[in-house]
Amino acid sequence: MSEDLVRASIIPLVIAPFISWYLVGILFEIDSLEKKMELLATYDDLTGFMNRRSFFNSCDVLHNYSMRNKQNYSIVSIDFDYFKKINDKYGHAAGDEVLSSFGRISGKLSRKSDILGRLGGEEFVFFLPDTNLNQARSFTEKLCEAIKNTKVTCNHTLVEYTISIGIAVNQCDANMTLEEVIKNSDEALYTAKNTGRNQTVLYK
Predict the structure, then answer these.
(1) Is 123 a catalytic residue?
(2) CA-CA distances (angstroms) from residue 93 to 49, 75, 108?
(3) 94 contacts 159 by C-beta, under 8 angstroms
(4) CA nearest neighbour of 66 among 115, 14, 9
(5) Out of 3.30.390.50, 3.40.50.300, 3.30.70.270, 3.40.50.720, which CATH number does the structure's domain 52-202 have?
(6) CA-to-CA separations, 150 to 31, 145, 174, in angstroms, rounded
(7) Residue 82's CB: how many other CB atoms inside 10 A?
(8) In 35-154, where do the E strands start and end?
(9) One of 3, 122, 141, 160 is an active-site residue; which one?
(10) Any idea of the CA torsion for 185, 191, 196, 201, to the nearest 10 degrees?
(11) Rounded to two decimals, what is the model's pTM?
(12) What distance separates the 2 farthest-apart alpha carbons in the chain?
């Protein structure tokens, strides 16, 4: 066997494992990037809440389940009070820290079954399955208390904030749509903001 033939036979055997490992590495990297892109497309990076599209897709499923099984669920609409003033006075980094803090607090107080959504800016909606009005109000009271007792600092400056909340509960016997329940919670939220802010209003 000539040297050229031997060399031609051995080189592929030596190089092939390196190429294989290189291709495997690329595949793992692609898979990792796809998962990161999926997370970015589903969740808000500041709060960890679902973004608008993912929130409504998930809520549609839970709404249909609740209606079939005649279960109550509550919608909690939340808006920050004077959030623009926080950004103007302390800077956008402070605003981001406030949002992150709110996300951590809400995540700790919520259940795994709850869906927390950031619809945009400082506008949030929570879907609390199998939850009546009193249970939802208890949740928001704990949320406001935790916010009050949590110090948010940015550049060694204490940043305080409050939220206004509206709560509405679905009425299974009225065959309400998810959009109607959210609309009701939004109306309660507007009442909270127009009558003093930093409070919770129940839709009646």
Answers:
(1) no
(2) 19, 29, 23
(3) yes
(4) 115
(5) 3.30.70.270
(6) 38, 9, 40
(7) 14
(8) 73-80, 115-120, 123-129, 152-154
(9) 122
(10) -40
(11) 0.80
(12) 95
Q: What is the DSSP letter of 111?
A: -
Band (pLDDT 50/70/90 cuts) for residue 115 is very high
- Amino acid symbol at 147: I
Domain boundaries, the chain: 1-42, 52-202
Strand order in the sheet with 73-80: 115-120, 123-129, 73-80, 163-169, 200-202
Amino acid letter for position 162: T
What percent of the chain has a predicted confidence (pLDDT) above 70? 80
Pairing assessment for the beta strands 200-202 and 115-120 based on DSSP bridges? unpaired
Q: What is the pLDDT of residue 173?
A: 74
| Number of continuous H segments (helices) and E segments (strands) in the chain | 6, 7
- Per DSSP, the three-state class of 132 is coil
Asked if residues 50 and 42 have their Cβ atoms less than 8 Å apart, the reply is yes
| Nearest alpha carbon to residue 181 among 61, 75, 92 | 75
Beta bridge partners of 124: 78, 118
* 15-41 pLDDT per residue, tens: 556 555 544 454 444 444 343 434 445
The DSSP letter of residue 49 is -
Give me the chain's average pLDDT, please: 86
189-195: long-range pairs with CB below 8 Å, 24+: 189/77, 189/78, 189/79, 189/164, 189/165, 190/166, 191/166, 192/164, 192/165, 192/166, 193/79, 193/81, 193/164
